Amino acid sequence: MTIPAETGGAVVVDELKKADVGRCAELEKTMFAGDSPWPAAAFRAELNAPYNRYFAAREALGAPPIGYAGISILGPNDDHECEIHTIAVAPTHRGRGIGRLLLDEMLAVADRLDAPVFLEVRVDNDPAIALYESVGFAKSGVRKGYYQPSGADAFTMIRPSQASGTTPEDPDE
């Protein structure tokens, strides 16, 4: 998937590769310094897990990532659910629709599986919350002290399966 040049330069989304983990770890240190940024080893472990899909946003094919996102596919084959692990865009590239492009790639994975999607987001991250709500996520709870070491709270958000319109916790299901 590509964002056209008129939005500030073409951006391509493809698979995150092991060669990208160093750059992702650098971005983590910049963006999440107060909340245990993932080291390169964490990204390698995520990429090695067969149930994860990770994407990179790049200014050109083969260029270093300017953003990344990851989703897990969980549960039995006939009853999947998905969990977004991370979505991040370099501060220098925000406001260009890159986060939405990465989110769309992850939601496409869930939609192919007819799976609901879960995530956590800092309660003070208004731009991310607005993005998630714009694609059908709803707040379902608060995790106190979720982000460490800052102790920031997180909203748990859920986007229902797009086919059924319900989540596993839906009492009417």
From TrEMBL:
NCBIfam families: rimI (TIGR01575). Keywords: Acyltransferase, Cytoplasm, Transferase. Residues 11-162 form the N-acetyltransferase domain. The lineage of its organism: Bacteria, Bacillati, Actinomycetota, Actinomycetes, Mycobacteriales. This is Ribosomal-protein-alanine acetyltransferase. It comes from Gordonia crocea. It comes from the Bacteria. The keyword Acyltransferase applies. Belongs to the acetyltransferase family. RimI subfamily. CDD domains: NAT_SF (cd04301). GO terms for molecular function: N-acetyltransferase activity.
